[in-house]
Fold:
Amino acid sequence: MEVGLLSSGGKDSTLAALLLEDHCDLTVLCCTFGITDDYEHAMAAGEAVGFETRRVDLDDEVARDAIEQMVDDGYPRNGIQTVHEHALERAAELDFDGIADGTRRDDRVPTVPRSLAQSVEDRYDVEHLAPLAGIGRGAIDRLAEEHLRVETGPSEEIEKGDYESELRVLIAEEYGAEAVAEMFPEHEQSRVVGRR
Structure:
């Protein structure tokens, strides 16, 4: 089975890849709107742990709709969910038997509810795999510490290939840096740099 895994280059998506690697032919998919070259960080993380990587271009219009939603809401949740759903569909359009991501049990965003997974499977004739769906953050942190070399730090300092970094750039361009600071609370990010 050939599977494309959406990856940000962080520990969640990389652990999902490690869980799948013995069971399928896996390609790490690094999504971008073409706004920045941050997707290259996700590609470097995938390659650092030994996976084939592939760039996936997302629709600029989806980014614009997402930031509009985020600005209207005053927080990023719905906009990031919109982008993740678009990325899943983009991946489903490719030549894979299955698509996967690193969403975990206790994620607030993005999530892949059963209805969305089944809809994507039915519409694109692919399987959706969610290897971390039953795993909580504590277990993921322990697994990452055991199996991965990870850099962590404030979200402003750790560059990786997730949707958030490109959306932050668009918001800053259209609404100013203050809007980014108000909308995105500083939090810790991770970037995988290799295996242990």
About this structure: The radius of gyration is 16 Å. Strands lie at 2-6, 25-32, 52-57, 98-100, 127-129, 148-154, 188-195. The mean pLDDT is 93. The longest helix spans residues 77-92.
